[in-house]
Amino acid sequence: MENPVSIGVISTHADFTALCRQIGQLPDIKIMVYEGALESCLTGLREFEQKGVEVIVTSEGNTLFVKDNTQIPVMSVPRNTFDTFYPLAKAAKQYGPKLTLFSYRKPPANLAEISELLGFQPTIAIFTDTNHLESLLEQFHDLDQVIIGGGFVCQLASGLGFITERINLS
C-alpha cells in the first residue's frame, strides 16, 4: 500500500479545524492541522516544513500570506459568492447597512454582484497584516459598524466588542 499523502491545513477558526481533524481520521489520509492566520501561522508552517508536508490547504483569505512564507505548494479553499453574501445579508437584515467587510490584501472578486444583490455596497476594509487589521478595527470602533470577515478577523473584532458575522466556507 502507498504511503498516505501528507497534507498540512492552516485553519483560521475552530469550526474549520474540527472539520479537518474529522477528515484526518479517515483511513489513508494524513492531515496535520495548525490553527492560525497571518503571522500567527508561521510556527505551523515551520512545523509542516520539518515534517515533510507535501501540500498546504488554507482559507482563501490566508492563502496569499501562506504562499509568501513557504516553498510548499498551497491550495486555497475557494469562497463562492454565497459564502460572502449570506453573512452580509444576515447582518444587514438585523442591523442595517452599517457593515464593514474586511478582506486581506484585495477586495472580494464578487463584490459588484454582492452589492447588487444587497442593494447597497458595504464599506470595504483591506488589511495587509495583523497590526494593520488591529489598527483598522480601532478606527471603526466608535462608528457602530458590524464587522464581516473570516474567522481570524471576527475573532479579533469580537475581542474588541464588535458585533461580527463570519464568512464560512460552504
Q: What general form does the structure show? A: globular
Strand-pairing-aware structural class: alpha/beta
Q: What topology, given as strand order, has the largest sheet?
A: 2-1-3-4
Give the C-alpha Rg: 17 Å
Task: Please tally the β strands and state the result.
Answer: 8
pLDDT averaged residue by residue: 88
Q: What is the makeup of the main sheet?
A: 4 strands, parallel
Give the SSE string.
Answer: EHEHEHEHEHEHEHE
Cα(first) to Cα(last) distance is 33 Å
Discrete helix count: 7
**Strand content range:** 15-25%
Instruction: Detail the poorly predicted runs.
Output: none
Q: Helix content range of the residues, please?
A: 40-55%
Keywords:
170 residues, alpha/beta, 4-stranded parallel β-sheet, 7 helices, 8 strands, 25% strand, globular
Model description:
- There is one protein chain.
- With 170 residues, the protein is α/β, with parallel strands linked by helices.
- The chain contains seven helices and eight strands.
- A four-stranded parallel beta sheet has the order 2-1-3-4, sandwiched between helices. A four-stranded parallel beta sheet has the order 6-5-7-8, sandwiched between helices.
- The model has no long low-confidence stretch (mean pLDDT 88).
